[in-house]
Design goal:
The chain has 66 residues and is mostly helical. It has helices spanning 3-22, 38-53; strands at residues 59-60, 64-65.
Length: 66
């Protein structure tokens, strides 16, 4: 993937995360583990879906490494 394509992907992901977070009403703890919030999981799911689809490896504070 070219640097330009990767940068474009990151812009698309940032926009998708912003859209997903617009619908979040619960900004409290996720209940999964200390210091993890429900909104973190929403953002993580959006990012993971798009990075996986692009064939990128992932190291995420919320979901670990792939």
């Amino acid at each position: 993937m070219s640097p330009e394509s990767l940068l474009s992907l990151f812009h698309e992901i940032a926009d998708a995360v912003a859209d997903a977070l617009d619908g979040v009403t619960d900004w409290g703890p996720s209940g999964g583990r200390d210091s993890q919030y429900a909104a973190d999981l929403v953002a993580d799911a959006v990012v993971l879906e798009r990075l996986r689809a692009a064939g990128c490896g992932v190291l995420s504070e919320e979901s670990g490494s792939e």
